[in-house]
Amino acid sequence: MGRHNFLSIRDFSPEEIQYLLDLAREMKAYPSAHAGALKGKTLAMIFEKPSLRTRVSFDVGIQQLGGFSLYLSNAEINLGKRESVYDVAKNLERMVQAIMIRTYAHEVVEQMAEYASIPIINGLTDFSHPCQAMADYLTMLELKDDVRGLKIAFVGDGNNVGITPDVLPDVLMSSLSAKRCQAASARSLRSWRQRKFWVFFIPEIMGARLAATRSLARWHARRCVS
């Protein structure tokens, strides 16, 4: 799999992530300067899972950069049943310049990246939601500017969004590993299966720790049912 794919934040160094965030800030500040960056390019968007924000952001985003988008739902492809991942990858690489896929199993995205010769973007899997995470990090930088020493609390479901922030730019944090994140998520979901609520808190830049706060989850659960 080439480095032109965007499957997981863990695939990139802190410096590379920082570069992408800096580029995003520049493009947001001076949109006209990048209006033709993807002129004549087509992005295939595969949605095995429906979406509002992911679809609109990719659809509008590539058009603002001069390109086109092609929406493909599960009804058109029926990935893995009517069409294999290999066949989809090989067919699309001849007709479009990139593929964004929003699916269930992360292995599907990895297989697509292995078979296709064009860039593959993870629009969401059960493992992670890197594009959402990058948008969140960009917001932090815009609001805080200097985020060194920033303490971050995540409040929400222990799902793909919760376990995504496993590697951040050096300016944010440096040592929250995916395995520790996944382990805490699994423990949280087992303990609070019916509530689907957990929190992790990152206290420092270096040596980041992960703590699922059971007491806060119980408090929130009581508030939700009262």
Task: Write a concise keyword list for the protein shown above.
alpha/beta, 2 domains, disordered C terminus, 226 residues, 4-stranded parallel beta sheet, Rossmann fold, two-stranded antiparallel ribbon
CATH class of the largest domain: Alpha Beta
Distance between the termini: 50 Å
CATH homology superfamily of the largest domain: Aspartate/ornithine carbamoyltransferase
**N-to-C SSE string, H for helix and E for strand:** HEHEHHEHEHEHEH
User: From the 3D coordinates, which CATH architecture of the largest domain would you assign?
Assistant: 3-Layer(aba) Sandwich
**What would the principal axes of the Cα set say about the shape?**
globular
Strand content: 5-15%
Lateral strand order in the biggest sheet: 2-1-3-4
Q: Number of DSSP helices?
A: 8
Q: Predict the CATH topology of the largest domain.
A: Rossmann fold
Major β-sheet profile: 4 strands, parallel
- Spans of at least 5 consecutive residues whose pLDDT stays below 50 are 165-212, 219-226
Gyration radius, to the nearest Å?
19 Å
**Protein structure class:** alpha/beta
Describe the fold and architecture.
The protein is globular. By secondary structure, the chain is an alpha/beta fold. It has helices at residues 14-29, 53-64, 74-77, 85-92, 106-115, 130-144, 178-191, 214-225; strands spanning 42-47, 68-73, 98-102, 120-124, 152-156, 198-202. The longest helix is centred in the first third of the chain and has 16 residues, at 14-29. The chain has two domains: 9-124, Rossmann fold, CATH 3.40.50; 146-225. The chain starts with 13 loop residues before the first helix and ends with a helix. Helix 5 (106-115) links the parallel strand 3 (98-102) and strand 4. The chain has a four-stranded parallel sheet, with helices on both faces. Strands 5-6 form a two-stranded antiparallel sheet.
